[in-house]
Amino acid sequence: MNFQSLTPKPMAQVFIVLVSIIITGIIGIPFGDPRFIIYAILLELSYIFLAFFVAKGYKMSLYVCISLAILIIVGNSFVSAHIHRIMTLSRPLNTIVLILGGYILQGFLIYTSIVAIKFSKISNQH
Asked: Are the C-beta atoms of residues 14 and 57 closer than 8 Å to each other?
């Protein structure tokens, strides 16, 4: 059995991660701080646009995905409320959404985007 045929193409993997981030954000927005809801919605819209461009096959969007994911991870790491929430688990659901959407899925986004970039460079050489 050829297992490579069962795995989605690299751009599809990036798209799946982006959709996962969008779903996590939609779940997490109601539990977040109401003062930042506009920023959360704008961030969600940016992920929706990125998912659209990735689905269309625009390779430049992969670099934007990496940059945005790094920005989110670094930003989350410097927000004292986020650090406190992670360390104390004071709001468990909010903390799970933060860790999943703000760190784990962002890491996957960086990884899948790098793989997609490398894959596109390899396939362009042939």
From this structure: no
Q: Give the tokens for residue 15.
A: 């798209």
- Distance in angstroms (rounded) separating the CA atoms of residues 51 and 48: 5
Which DSSP symbol is given to 8? P
pTM score, whole prediction: 0.88
Q: CA-CA distance, 2 to 59, in Å (whole number)?
A: 27
For 19-77, the pLDDT digits (tens) are 999 999 999 988 888 888 999 999 999 999 999 999 999 999 999 999 999 999 999 99
Query: Number of structural domains, the chain?
Result: 1
In a domain, 63, yes or no: yes
Tokens of 57: 């096959």
